[in-house]
Write a structure and sequence with these properties.
This protein is an alpha/beta fold and about 400 residues long. The chain folds into two domains: about 200 residues, 3-Layer(aba) Sandwich (Rossmann fold), CATH 3.40.50; about 160 residues, Rossmann fold, CATH 3.40.50. Helices cover about 45% and strands about 15% of the residues. The protein is built from 13 helices and 13 strands. The strands form two sheets. The chain has a seven-stranded parallel beta sheet with strand order 2-1-3-4-5-6-13, sandwiched between helices. A six-stranded parallel beta sheet has the order 9-8-7-10-11-12, with helices on both faces. Helix 3 runs parallel beside helix 5, helix 6 crosses helix 11 and helix 9 crosses helix 12. It is globular, with a radius of gyration of 22 Å.
Length: about 400
Amino acid sequence: MTALGPELLIIGPSPPPYNGMTRATELVLQALECEGIPYIRLDTADRRGLANVGKFDFGNLWLAARHGARFLWFLLTKRPRVVYVPIAQAWLPFLRDCLFLLPARLLGRKVIIHLHGGYFGRFYRETSALMRFIVRCALGNACCAIVLGRNVASAFEGILASERVRVVPNGIPDPFADSVPAKAKEAKAPTLLYLSALAAEKGILDLLRALPKVRARAGNVRAVIAGEWCSERDRDIANWVIESLDLKNVVEFIGAVGPERKRELLAGADVFVFPTAYRFEGHPYVILEAMAAGLPVVSTKVACIPETVRDGMEGFLIEPGDVGALADRIGRLVADRQLRERMGQAGRQRFLDEYTYDKFAEKINKVLAEVLEPGCGIFQLENVPGPDAREL
């Protein structure tokens, strides 16, 4: 594709801290650069850490005001024709997003919204009548809404026509393109890996509570847990669980990790465990990374995870909060090396077939380029069968 003339304004955070939103923004920008689509960027990063995300405090209000003012300056001086906005799924951060959405609408800019989670539909249905009115005003004129999977394609029902919704699953560069890590054949304690923010709603406490049952069923096991604690309360509960269940020699906390260390952890693990109950979950990058590493995945039936990990094929899926089922599925994999290898190989192949960065870049660029093309509307995209959205 040749470089397009109209300017595109991308809104989103850059790392640090490293989380799903910062990574999503970086991957969108890389896709644009590879395709030669010119853009300008408004960085909405909060460098204070994950614990500050979504909090109602002076610091966040100040950041929102700064970002809103800078956005207006971009609109008036750079005059982009299209604005790309990743939207939040709760009332306070969505009001912050309105600082971008409403001025763009009032000034006649095309707006692309990108939903990186699976909770927006419920948030809209259960919020107040006033908030629903604000949501419709902010989003009702969007020319395109991008969602992560068919399971969340109906998130904008009552707000946008389904013809404006596009399904673009996440995709990542293959961290093991050179070689997929070989698993040790000699007898050793299988390693479970948890890699995400450390919060009760992400399933870290469920994993700790499941470990004694796993050991009783399958013998010795080791759990490596990487990530940043989101609250002191969850950290204190985790320490109490470890002490009361005598897990000090089983669990290793290694803190937040960067890309290289993450790759090492994935290469050294035998099973990836992510028992999330997080209501804002979407299409977790960590699951794609685990599949790329050839690891079987034990996770939950939340948001787009069941579209990615098929229960009994690339891993096991349980209901959120079911510690007994979590222990049972982990125990099966710990006790059966051949099952681990078979599911891990299936996961690696599914990653290559569906979730590579090249596939993501092709799909996201198709949406962005179509909106940017002069005289070309989003409704001219090729129709792909589906009840609620068009999958590219």
